[in-house]
Each structure stands twice: as structure tokens, then as C-alpha cells.
């Protein structure tokens, strides 16, 4: 988090964070963090937003996991709290048997189309896409 604060002071623009899940246990299973925790990721996003930085999330999407009710609820709550500017959907290309050997069974999946519809309805100020938009021009700096 302190490193992100330094980057923000040096005019970082924008910041993109890759996330498999906004639930700590599932985040840890996929990302296997070393020398940081989910709280550090979350606090880094908060620091960037406090500095006026545009924050995008690369959400690693896997049907049957990302569209589970508990995953969606966690994402919505976290994105609202952190005031995320954009959610960029990225296909997670992984063997489903391998993934589901490590990720605990969960609730009912609602389908990716329903997931996308819900994101748009619940987070109307958040752009949903798959690319980064510049926030500042050279003149603004």
C-alpha cells in the first residue's frame, strides 16, 4: 500500500488491479499472495481513490464461479465501497477440473448474461468493458 501511495504522489494514472474474487479466501486460492494480503490490495485501491486516481479492476471471469450469488454480492459491495471506476472483464482460461479442485463449492450460478445485467443495474456509474480509458491529458498535468 505504501508503494501505491508513492506512485500516486508521482502521478500514477490510471491504476488497474487484477482480481479473481473479492472474497479473501477465494482471492488467496487463486492469487497465492506472497508478502501481501487481500487487505493490502483493498487498501491500495482506497489510497489510489483518495489520491483521485481512476481505478479499474481486471475481473478474471469464469462461468460457474464469477456468477455465483456470493461472488457477485462480494464484488458489488467491494466495488461500491472502493468507488471503482471500471470493471474490465477478462476470461480466465483454466482447466475447470483444476479450478474446482481448489475453489470451494458455492451457491447457484446465475449465468454470465444475468451477471452482466446485474452489474449494469447495481453499479450504473461503473463502466463495464475490456479496455482502459485515459483520465488525464498532458495539459491537465
Overall mean confidence score, pLDDT = 89
Strand portion: 5-15%
Report the sheet with the most strands, covering strand number, pairing sense and barrel closure: 4 strands, parallel
* Helix segment tally: 6
- Rounded to an integer in angstroms, the radius of gyration calculated over CA atoms is 16 Å
List low-confidence stretches.
none
Structural class: alpha/beta
Give the distance, in angstroms, between the N- and C-terminal Cα atoms.
Answer: 24 Å
- As laid out across the biggest beta sheet, the strand order is 1-2-3-4
Q: Could you say which overall geometry the principal axes of the C-alpha atoms support?
A: globular
Number of strands: 4
Work out the helicity level: 40-55%
Order of helices and strands: HEHHEHEHHE
How would you describe this protein?
The protein is an alpha/beta fold. The chain contains six helices and four strands, in the order H-E-H-H-E-H-E-H-H-E. Strands 1-2-3-4 form a four-stranded parallel β-sheet. Strand 2, helix 4 and strand 3 (86-91) form a beta-alpha-beta unit. Helix 1 (2-9) runs parallel beside helix 3. The longest helix is centred in the middle third of the chain and has 14 residues, at 69-82. The protein is globular. It starts with a helix and ends in a 12-residue tail after the last strand. The model has no long low-confidence stretch (mean pLDDT 89).
